[in-house]
Amino acid sequence: MPKIVFRYDTEDYVNEFAAEGILRAIRPLDEAGITGCFVVVGKLALALERWGRWDVIEALKRHEIGTHTMSHSAHPTVNEYTDLEDFEQALSNFLEDERACVDVLKRVFGDNIALASTSAPGNSISYVAQYGYAALGIREYLGGFTRDEEKNRPIYFCNVINTTTNYCLDTVYQSTKEELDAKIEALATKEVVILCHHPAMNMMREYWDKVNFDGVNTPESEWRESARLTEAEMDAWVENYTYFVQKIKNDPRFEIITSEKIEEAYFPQTERVIDREVLAQVKPQIEKALFPVTDPDSFCLADLVYACRDLLLGKEKHICGTVFGFLSEPYAIAAPLTLTKEELVAAAAQIGDTFLPTVLSVGEKRLGVADFLRAALSLLTEDAESVTVAPAPWQIDLNQFPLLRDMSLKGTWVHTKDFEDAYISARSRLQFYTARLPKGTARFIF
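-> structure tokens emitted (446 positions)
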């Protein structure tokens, strides 16, 4: 049964009249008894107060509230201020901005809001933000390039659950009832369905940020109003949107949930433990392909690396937790390498609890983390005193994730001309040792 979430990128703090669009999106949900997830830009929450739209604030309080960053498209965007070589500085920049947003949302909507979810603003998709949200306890990140494009299963990546939109409701005023019915049939084939709507767009035909923040910050005194839909188009949107909401509500094939419930359904917070017995089950899967495993549990490659480290250093088991990938492309052997148990133990001691090292050095020998993983799996499961590891790829098959494989953010969305994307796209691919799929599901996508 597909699980379906009604998700709303609630962001326009420029067009005051478009605040009414939030109520237009909420009313049919309330009538159907559906809880939507409204990810709200901090500056919009402040604007709603400034505009005196207490009716909108109270209506939003009846639903799940998430964060959509402090200022969305205002420069510097999340990508622009996190595209740094120094990860710690980039993370500090992000946490300063996002903590301010969280404080605003809790003050406006109440300290008891869950804040379990977030959406990347436009194409401002940053691995730094994903690690930052995980540190803040915000567990679901929508809009990244780490996607199951076949079934839309959620994927853990950089310690947050990555989801993606299946259908945008912004332009349903252009659809016929037959087209909406056909879309519902297509959505019924997915694992998770995320419906997206920008509430301002049920009243406008231009995105507020494209008009005012495309490459530059238009001063507030010069903000331009977006072009509006006609009254007939607005009415058609309400009619078709209400029809769609009711059809989903009454379709027994769908289970309507909130974003907060995605983790519970697909990645329950149970203890994931790796010992030698588990490694014996994992080893043939890694020999087949360097890729996350879903049996006997959901494990990313970093989980397995940390587990091999701990077991080689004398622990009986590894308790899985926070994981990290690489910050630069790792070394990999080019010829077979024989390692003794003592040498693997020395290599294990070089692996910490943060980003994985680029190279491990043992005397004159050098090996990469992927080489270490393959060698350690053999030694630990065979109880050998030495092992010979052959050259093999260090990276997973990124053809399983074509959007991430081809990710390149320079010159996209409303980013400034001097945004280079010097680190974000390349380093996002280097985080795939943190990726894992739900337990018991297919290991591969295609």
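The chain has two domains: 3-266, 273-396.
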